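Case study.
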Amino acid sequence: MNPPRLSADERRAAILAAAMPLFAVHGFAATTTRQIADSAGVSEALLYRHFPSKEDLYMALHEFCCVHAEVFSRFIDEIKPSTSTLVHSVYYIMNSIFLHKQNHPDDPVNNEHFCRLMINSLLDDGRFARMFIKDQVMPWMDLWAASAKSAEAAGDMNPGIAIENRLWFTHHLAVMLAVNHLPETCVIPYACNAQNLCDEAVLFSLRGMGLTESAIATHYNPSAIQLFTKKIFEALNP
Amino acid sequence: MNPPRLSADERRAAILAAAMPLFAVHGFAATTTRQIADSAGVSEALLYRHFPSKEDLYMALHEFCCVHAEVFSRFIDEIKPSTSTLVHSVYYIMNSIFLHKQNHPDDPVNNEHFCRLMINSLLDDGRFARMFIKDQVMPWMDLWAASAKSAEAAGDMNPGIAIENRLWFTHHLAVMLAVNHLPETCVIPYACNAQNLCDEAVLFSLRGMGLTESAIATHYNPSAIQLFTKKIFEALNP
DNA sequence: ATTATCTATAGATCTATAGATAATGC
DNA sequence: ATTATCTATAGATCTATAGATAATGC
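After joint prediction, the assembly is written out as follows.
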């Protein structure tokens, strides 16, 4: 009859899980403590037992996102930098960020909600975004940059753009494609479906980074890439 | 002594001008009618004389942005589609959206505020973003797409990506660069300053669209482009 | 006479806390 | 005995309106 009585840690996690979609979809100011309490099935008073203020709850949510993203960086060391890795990485970036594919299946952080929290942070002071990028994205960036350097050394890539920027630009395109698809009706009148759009964005990025058409022809093999990303997927999901 | 008594139209515009930075920076929910009234130097009651509700005021602000952007589309017909126009357009997109350069000097809509309103719309239902894109961006897109087709016909561009998407991707990169720079501290640890970043993003986009290295070498002449954009700038500011 | 503008306030809602109660674990 | 949880509510704030007042234009 009565709602289950949880331990402090469990209740804390349950409150965060309930708060996530609310803060993500409505933003900080438009989300009320009453909404969160109702969604979590507890009283507002209990929220304030676990979090000193609404603001603290919001910040705890950001920490929660960072901690639960850590699983992704465990397998970086096993991947060798190369032109092929670069191509596969671009494919992975685009698919995971834009199409929300190939992420950890047990990830408690919904991809759309995470995206919304990030954009909300960018409209705010950017603290959460910086924290996440520093802790979770930079390890990958090191691998990506090493791969780009390797591609350059192999003569597969034209010069003219700082190595890291080539990958940031790819990343930015992926994020913006995701953001444009956040509203129920996509704001951009693209002439194709999301999957084709993603594939074209991969090609755009590979070319944009300066990869030669011949290097792209050699390394951009969709079926091989699917195998590669599937392997990552399985490594993340033992 | 007393504050000046304005006509209904003038007061309405003054209220919108005061509301703009508040809604842009803090978002709809976190902006109070009291803040707007104080910033406009009037009572809250007067706000509700001019706008039935806070929501209506917000929507009026969106209309205001669209109307005041119309000046930009007046000179489209004078520009001929070509590879050169395409290159110049990419440069223009990147500089106007990311670096906030080459816009109309009398534009009452601050570029950063406009960017924030757009992103807020994307986190919401996207209505404002769709309206602006349809009315203000699509006329340009037609010119850009015609230029890209012209470049393709001239043998300057490799195939593989839908024509419009090449320019949307360029646009998205520009927007995301702007968004990453919204917080006081940029969220991405770029290894260069904003001007270099913009130049590199132009090169990335030209390559990404599939322009050949030789076409880029022929048409991407920074000093000639500065002249071109200056001409647009002057046309917009007679 | 009309229009712009204000003061004052109703009614709702929102964050946060005080103090009481019920379930758990030793 | 400790810990989780609730009810009730204070105090602030927020949107919106009622009704009064002062400036403008014919």
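Observations recorded in class. The mean pLDDT of chain A is 91. Residues 8-65 of chain A form a domain with the Arc Repressor Mutant, subunit A fold (CATH 1.10.10.60). We will return to this complex in the next lecture.
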